[in-house]
Amino acid sequence: MSPLATMVRRVLGLGASVLLSSFVVFLVPFVSPGDPVRSLLRARMDIGAADEATVQAYAEQFGLHDPMLVQFGRWLGRFATGDMGISHISGTPVADQVLPAIGVTLSLAGSALLVAIVASILLGVASATRAGQWPDRLITSITHALIAIPEYALAPLLVLLFAVRFSLLPSAGFDSPASLVLPVFILALRPISFFTVAVRSGVCQALDSEHVLAARARGLSSTQALVRHVVPHGLLPLWTMVGVWFAGLLGGSVIVEVIFAIPGMGRLIFDSIVDADIPVAQGGVVVVVACAVVVTGIVDLVHKISDPNVRIGVRHG
Amino acid sequence: MARNHSREILLSPPAFILLAVVILTIAAPWISPYDPNAQSLADRLQAPSLAHLLGTDALGRDTLSRVLHGGRFSLSVALITTLFSLLVGTALGLLSAVRGGWLDELFLRVNDLLLALPEIVIALLIIAVMGPGFSTMVLSVGVVAWTPTARLVRSMAAQALSTHHVEASKHVGASRWFILRHHVLPFVAGPVLAQAALRFGLLLVLLGSLSYLGIGVQPPQSDWGSMLAEAQPHAIRSPWGMIAPGAAIFLVSFCVTLLGNRITHVLGGQDVLATEAKAEIHD
Amino acid sequence: MTRELEFIDLSVSSGDQRLLSEARGALRAGELVAVVGRSGSGKTLLTKAIIGLLPQQLRVEGKILLDGQRLDQLDEKAMDSVRGRRISMLFQQPKRVMNPLLTIRAHLLEALGAHGWGKARQHEDRVLSLLEEVGLSPAKQIAGKRPDQLSGGMAQRAMLAIALAADPEFILADEPTSSLDSILKSEVLQLLRRKQQERGVGVLFVTHDIASIQHIADRVVVVSDGQIVDQCPTALIFSKDRHSKTRELVEASLPPLRTLRATDSACLLEAVDAGKNYTRRAKGSAALNPTSLRLHGGQVLGVVGRSGSGKSTFARLLAGLEQPTTGRIIHAHHNGEATRVQVIAQEPYSSFDPRLTIRTSMSAAVHRLPAIQAGERMAQAMAQVGLPEQLLDRRPGQCSGGQLQRLAIARALLTEPQVLICDESTSALDSVAQRHILDLLLDLREQMGLSLVVISHDMDVIRYVSDDVAVFYEGELVEHRPLDDFLADPEHQHSKDLVAALDITAAVPSAS
Amino acid sequence: APEKAADPEARVVVANFRAPVSNWALESDDAYVLSIAGCLETLAKYDQGTKTVEPMLATSWKQSSDTEWDFELRKNVEFQDGTIMDAKAVAASLNHVLKATAPARAVNPKTIKKVEALDADTVRVTTPGADPLLPYRMASVNAGVLSPAAYTGKGIDPMHHCTGPFAPVSEKAGQSLTLDRNENYWDGEVKLAGGEIRYITEGATRATQVQTVEADISMSIPATSLATLEADDKISVLKADSPRTSTLYLNNSRAPFDNPELRKAATMALDLPAMAASIYEGAAQPATGPFAPSEPWANPDLAVPQVNLVEAKKLVEASGYKQEKPLEIIAITERAEFAGVGAIIQEQFKQIGLQANVVTKSYGAAEPDVLAGKYDMILSQRNRMIDIADPIGFLQSDYTCEGGYNLSHYCNEDYDKLVGQALVEKDETKRHDLYRKAGDILAEDAANVWLVNEQAIDAVGAKVQGYVQDPLTRYVLTKDLAKTS
Ligand SMILES: Nc1ncnc2c1ncn2[C@@H]1O[C@H](COP(=O)(O)OP(=O)(O)OP(=O)(O)O)[C@@H](O)[C@H]1O
Ligand SMILES: Nc1ncnc2c1ncn2[C@@H]1O[C@H](COP(=O)(O)OP(=O)(O)OP(=O)(O)O)[C@@H](O)[C@H]1O
Ligand SMILES: [Mg+2]
Ligand SMILES: [Mg+2]
Fold first, then answer.
1. For B169, C420, C423, D172, which has the most beta carbons within 10 A of its beta carbon?
2. From the list A152, A157, A240, which residue is nearest B209 (CB)?
3. What distance in Å separates the CA atoms of residue C127 and residue C145, rounded to the nearest whole number?
4. 3-state helix, strand, coil in chain D (%, to 5)
5. B51-66: string of b/e by CB count within 10 Å (b at 16+)?
6. φ and ψ of A294, to 5 deg
7. What does pTM read for this prediction?
8. How far apart (Å, rounded) are the C-alpha atoms in residues A62 and A60?
9. Which UniProt keywords are listed (chain A) (predicted)?
């Protein structure tokens, strides 16, 4: 398939994904129990019953009692002009909530992945170059253990240890580099395992490949060959995974965001769905989906350009 | 899988531990020292003792009994969702690989979408609609859980189908069924089984996180995740309440991952985690 | 004193198994020594053992002397400065041994020991002159390319430039030409010989094909089952009283002894303006331009052409594995049944599922028959290809390449084909095994009246089996004539090149 | 030891349980955040110590007719942006809240007809009917006053637009509000250089923050963290009766709890002290009735209901109730402790022969059924003095036959009559008397089971000085709050 056709398909796919996901989110208040307008009012004010007139007036203000498709059409019309709508709770533009949140999450997910990349390169190379020996077995065990850790159990324990007990790190928030340490560490755990395995197998494969042997025959020392020929190849499979994980972490760090009181995307979506603030939830989901599709698309593209195995394609015949 | 292979898998330490956990949880009603819901408000938040091996929780309920009973819930939900995703994922993955065309295209798009929407957000949407509970949990996780399996099956089946030997078989007149049965399924089965083990572990943790967030299992029922959530506020005074269910989730998930890894290992494959990674590289 | 690379009692073992035992020999500067032997005989092990790059699990014993200095006792660091600088290597698959992420320039700089920051500029002249020396121009442009952007021949030349970069005294060449087509092969061989003589380098040239090196090698060393069984000056290799293993190799490279021509019979298969364009766009060159051709019963059609010239595409169209985008393929009907066509693929190891027994794989062809009948048919097919029935219960990993290729033929025979298309079916095999398969094919034609389409980039093969030759060039059938006419008077420029290449590598008459 | 001197450069960090969600709309609960921050001030102020409404931005007020109140503004009060606070600005602020689509609970068109500036220093508030509680309303945070410049096209901008001791200077969305000392504060010198309000909705995290000294004051500490904090000698834990009572609402409108005998049995079955001591960690008092004992209108003679299983069983039998299927206790998910409370109730009901299941639901999901009277029991909690320090709103909406929030669907004409009288009673003592009688009727009828009176718990770090706890969570950063270095 030509690059242009791929691009067009991707863009169409992106549009479809965004539309579909926003519609799914949009449906939630229509099919879930409870009155969404009262939910919205409750989010503005403490538990208590709003009287019917208030509910009516409030619904009127945001057109919440219009037929479903009319509402969705209105949202779409606005969205087409780049306007994500108005939050039903704060009455402010959705973008004002979504953009800071995505910023927070981007830096959180970005740092976590950065940590994971660095750690996994070290671990993966260390274990591949000692394949079958104890460092390899140890690292492999660690990678298997990391994914089994329930982060919601580990995070509170780490807070108790590092924040409460030793006062080394802040227990929550998102303002100083120190406040990033624990959440980033916890978010990085799982990617570290997956990345390490990818790097390890990539490096193992590269170690076995003939071009590394040829490089040695050219007079490169084993370290030089490792740095110049093995590791770059070992890392090729990593980049696609980074893309996928990046996409996943954008909205998927709810637990960490809740535990560490971080005003990120996962939390924003979580709260807005709970409070029935659908424009915000829609905006959040759309941005997450769009970012995810774009990121995976870019990674795919980079992968296609950078990985010669993919670039050449498998010969038929 | 050859017989000695199965033996190598089944006679391993993780398999024993898992078996023990499963037996203990199944037998929970008979072996647990207390009724998991029996409260004794006077004996709350006790440290481990002879009377309560793992101490008591905030309502004075025996933590050990609750971990055992909670395991029934946690493990069965995780098992059901894993089986569900295994069946659905394998069927759809095969279909997509074999049929190709628009079906495959549709499959890829749906996958892209589900990949872009974090699992927990999807779970949240479903819970918002259906309210929390057992079936919601299974459904909300099941909706997404099949995709990694399907992607793996699709990519492996496509890989199997594009081999020279399949082409050779086809050309000498092998039927579709012959190819599926001899060339594709044996190729796919091992990694998929290994991945299912891995998925079970991951799902156990994910389901726990729903309960932890309070949108999963609802009291008075409890699973390991909700036990963790209940115990967290008391963590300083009584860390056992958190450590026990946390360790249970970790132990089961870890063992089952090791087991999955053993499967790929005896099949001469890579690390089980790579099955998940392979599933991610698509299109 | 001439420089000398000597190995004494060199053994390589894996566990208790001796893979190479007590090899002894020497290579002097300015000399080209051919190491010949069948696949798996230990040729590669020998070269890797000399340069000290065997995998760690293999144990090496014996002495390796470079100008009297014990290489086997050097530490890794010292060895690093021998490799590339004093002894370098050439490999069979140039693209696979180059780092696909790096440019040719980067490879050359590495070989020059100049891969640091800022050193590139200083050595640019050296890089370009090396490339020009091996006939790669414009050098500047080629230096900037990555391996996958080069053709096979160019890559092999680049490989040679890399090997020559640090001005080594010895080059160990492990089958550097066996993946090239005849024309390229002769070009590269000549280039190698020239450079070797100009620079006075000692070359150890590994091959399984005596014919290809008979004009350039000074001496021949014959390896069989991990042992050096024979060595002598090249000229003496053809004498009748040499070691039996030597004879075997020599015979496999002999010119055709047969000039049997099948009598014309009915047309089985006909291509009428059949062409194929893989891309959907109308523009852009088609993989195969419209081609017309007839195939008769019992005929052997040899198909030659460079890589990418459309040979396989044509074969796939004939076999019905692909639908032509223009024209059509007409199958003759005989007793109401259309002509049955079967294809034998190139790679013996990939044409059987490694997890299944051969029997299961074979049963694909007869799984619709009752079990007993199917078993009988398989036994019969095995007999036809001259293999014992026990082989059926092995897995592909337990069979040799030659056996697998026979098994592939047996599987094809199960469908009772009238036409057998062999797409490079022997090029992965050593010359002896290749000869055996070709003989088997000719036998089958003899016995069963099979028509054969033999696709090969190796003119020796074509000449050995064909009645008629079809030459493809850039997706076009440029020549289609009886073999003798073709050899005597090739018309198309490409055909002329092919025939000329044949002369250079042609075997001398057996009486010598 | 002698108290250390306060540091004039010190800033105090407050971990607040509430995050502003409504773009600082004063009719919403965001007003509480601004009030806690020491930014937003009101004309009057309810003093927790004296239990009276006292002057703040207004120096005095008088009722010029049954429905008209004139507030005399304090002179020379400047907004933090330097503009003068005059009657026009005050009227504009209040009218803004009155015009809101979703108006505030205490300040809305039903309680206030109009607000106008009589002259530069006098604001007239007109009520639809006689309302002795108007000064209370004007003390609610929703009646806060902001500079005219705060009302922008894009909503409310509080930065430097209040009158209070602290001026907001910047906000990190979803995280915190930073404030600096108001050098020109009308009520004198402000001791702290500034402060920060951090929005931390997770209770456990708030508790941790004060332990780690990331926060100086953590508000609304969850009961579960209480023991830990109390064990920490660097932290003082302040408790006060809050106007919230956790209540097991019984559906009075349908079987079986339309039978008062059965409701009484339910009350007798529950061991409230044990509940308060366990789930609530002693951070709540077993309830004696609809009011907390510390409230002026509570009946001091009411005692915590005694567990009496024998009597309760008898009542159940006497009621003739035959249980066919288990009753349902809805525990709302918004309050984590209700799951445990529900579990306890389930156990204790079992002992008097009532089978019940606990189902957890979000309040939003449960509300339609509850309001429609389609439920058995729901665990919820209710603030009696939302926004104003008087229970009349609560008594009216929650228990009168026509009450807008009568979850228990309770209806008693005698009760309604008492509430009607209280509504127009100007004399405070008499009014409180009426409240008490109304409360007695509720208790007598066992309208619901009032479980525990919750307490407001704040945790305060050792360096903080001059912190006065406000159970209604309105005032935290005050001019007198200080911190040692
Ligand atoms: N790393 C290894 N471990 C064990 N056995 C090996 C290893 N490498 C090669 N061998 C075995 O050693 C023998 C000689 O192998 P070698 O690669 O030298 O053959 P070759 O003569 O180069 O064959 P070809 O012409 O196919 O390249 C073979 O039987 C091979 O299976
Ligand atoms: N499935 C395919 N899709 C697209 N292009 C193809 C496909 N198969 C072959 N081609 C292209 O068609 C052209 C002819 O290929 P073909 O395989 O027929 O060459 P060949 O003569 O068999 O070469 P070789 O000697 O390398 O096997 C080449 O340019 C090739 O890249
Ligand atoms: Mg070799
Ligand atoms: Mg080909």
1. B169
2. A152
3. 13
4. 30, 25, 45
5. ebebbbbbbbbbbbbb
6. -65, -45
7. 0.85
8. 5
9. Cell membrane, Membrane, Transmembrane, Transmembrane helix, Transport
SS3 B46: coil
**ipTM of the complex in this document:** 0.84
> What are D84's strand-pairing partners?
D78
Radius of gyration of chain D (CA): 23
> C328 pairs with which residues across the strands?
C272
DSSP state of C204: E
DSSP class of D366: H
What region, left, alpha or beta, does residue D320 occupy, with left being phi > 0 and alpha being psi -120 to 50 degrees?
Answer: left
Most A-contacting residue of D96, D110, D212, D362 (CB-CB within 10 A), to test interface = D212
Residue A89 Cα to ligand 3 middle (Å): 73
Half-sphere exposure of A295 (CA within 13 A, CB side): 24
Ligand 3 geometric centre to CA of B236 (Å): 66
- The rounded radius of gyration (Å) of the Cα atoms in chain A is 24
Sign, CA torsion C285/C287/C290/C291: positive
Nearest to C295, CA basis, from C453, C475, C476: C453
Residues 162-181 of B with CB under 8 A from C: 163-169, 171-175, 178-179
Cα A50 from Cα A150, distance rounded (Å): 40
Residue B257, CA distances (Å) to A142, B89, B271 in order: 12, 19, 10
Return the ∠ at Cα B207 (arms to B201 and B209), rounded to 5°.
110
Report whether A46 contacts D29 (CB < 8 A). Answer: yes
Looking at residue B183, the DSSP 8-state letter turns out to be I
Backbone φ and ψ for C215, nearest 5 degrees, come out as -90, -10
Cβ atoms within 10 Å, residue A160: 19
Q: Per residue of chain C (512 residues), give pLDDT as tens.
A: 568 898 989 999 888 888 898 888 889 988 999 999 888 888 989 999 999 888 888 888 998 988 888 888 888 888 888 888 889 999 888 888 888 888 898 899 888 876 666 666 778 888 898 998 888 888 888 888 888 888 888 888 899 899 988 888 999 999 888 778 778 888 888 888 888 888 889 999 998 878 778 888 899 999 988 889 998 898 888 888 888 888 888 887 766 655 555 555 778 888 888 888 877 655 557 788 888 988 888 889 999 988 888 888 899 899 888 888 888 888 888 777 788 899 888 788 888 988 889 999 999 888 888 889 999 999 999 998 889 998 899 888 888 888 898 999 999 999 889 899 998 888 878 888 888 889 899 888 888 888 999 998 888 888 888 889 999 988 889 999 888 888 888 888 888 888 887 765 554 333 33
Cβ distance of B131 and D365 shorter than 8 Å: yes
Distance from CA of B126 to the nearest CA of D (A): 14
C265 three-state secondary structure? coil
C11, C36, C38, C45, best to mutate for ligand 1 pocket (most atoms within 8 Å of CB) = C45
Q: How far apart are CA C429 and CA A69, in angstroms?
A: 69
- Take atom 25 of ligand 2 and give the residue whose Cα is closest: C307
C-alpha–C-alpha distance, residues B244 and B221, integer Å:
17
Nearest CA in chain C to B185: C355
Residue C473: strand, helix, or coil? strand
The two structure tokens encoding residue A295 = 């990121």
Report residue D461 as tokens. 């770090």
Rounded Cα gap, residues A196 and A118, in angstroms: 10
User: For residues A35 and A55, is the Cβ–Cβ distance under 8 A?
Assistant: yes
* Residue C202 β-bridge partners: C170
Reported as type and span, the H/E element at residue B30 is: helix B28-31
D38's tokens: 């020491």
CB-based pocket (< 6 A), ligand 2: A 316-317; C 278, 287, 305, 307-313, 457
d(CA A286, CA A292): 10
